[in-house]
Amino acid sequence: MWTEVAKYLFGVELARLSSTCRWFRRLLADESIWRYAFLRDLSLLPSSADRYPPRPLHRSWRLLYTAAFNGAHSFWFRRSTRHLGAYRIGGFLLESPYMLLTAMLAVPRWLPPEEDGPQIAIEMTGACMLPNARPGIWIADFHLVRCPNCTINKCAGVLQVMDARHCELFLEQGFWNGTWEYEDLGDHYNDEETPTAACAIFNASIHAHASISSVLSSKSWVRRCDDPQPKAHCRRHAVALNSNLLSNSNQGLVSRFQAMRDTTGNGQIVSIRITQQIY
């Protein structure tokens, strides 16, 4: 009975419970409790028990829960002085290693050949397909960041960032010791006045169609055009972000795509950033 009760408690409450006696500490060693809490708080609980996401390799669900919900984010560890604010968007699944990134709430009808690399695709279409992302559970956050050494005359001074990472990233030694760094994939320039800053990440999986359709049906979730507050939308296999730009003086939008790779293994992508800047 207590195992089922514990599944409905938050991490802080579970920690307090474990401090009351040894029996509760032994109870909370049950990984199923932490798995349930982890997936529940990322809105990833399956509709049936036989469809739970696979357990990440070499990680306990308790460690994963702590890393995901201790308040830490990637800007704490790098460039923290530029960081202005953040909030959690949610969790999503990569069932295949193929990830589609876009600087719009639309899927391009065509992309250059994969062998041309992501930079050409990003410059031409504002989107790219990445073939070597680490499958599993990913976590998406929204950030506001100060513009570093801006050279664009009419920059508003604030960048919008959608940051997505594999749930194991904060437990990786390569991340903590600075071995893994973000690499630039490419920039997309929209040279016309734009009313919105939007971006999205999709898993190119046979099970992702419903999530992609939900994200692309933007009228059902974006804010009214006179509301400048950012709005995120997260589904099981996709995540998106949209901000309405009220200023009529912008001359366009630049979207920068970055990725972090596991350089100690097979080069799998473990984190993505899409940064958008008005000019």
Can you walk me through this structure?
The chain is of the alpha+beta class and 279 residues long. The protein folds into 2 domains: 2-63, no CATH class; 74-278, no CATH class. Helix content is 23%, strand content 32%. The chain has helices at 2-6, 11-18, 22-27, 31-41, 61-69, 74-77, 118-125, 173-176, 209-216, and strands spanning 83-94, 99-102, 127-130, 136-146, 158-166, 182-190, 196-203, 231-235, 238-244, 253-261, 269-278. Helix 4 runs parallel beside helix 5 (61-69). The protein starts with a helix and ends with a strand. This is F-box domain-containing protein. InterPro entries: F-box-like_dom_sf.
- Write down the overall geometry: globular
Unreliable spans are none
Overall structural class, as computed from helix and strand content, comes to: alpha+beta
Please report the total strand number as a whole number.
Answer: 11
Could you tell me the mean pLDDT?
Answer: 83
Briefly characterize the structure.
The protein is of the alpha+beta class and 279 residues long. It has 9 helices and 11 strands. It folds into 2 domains: 2-63, no CATH class; 74-278, no CATH class.
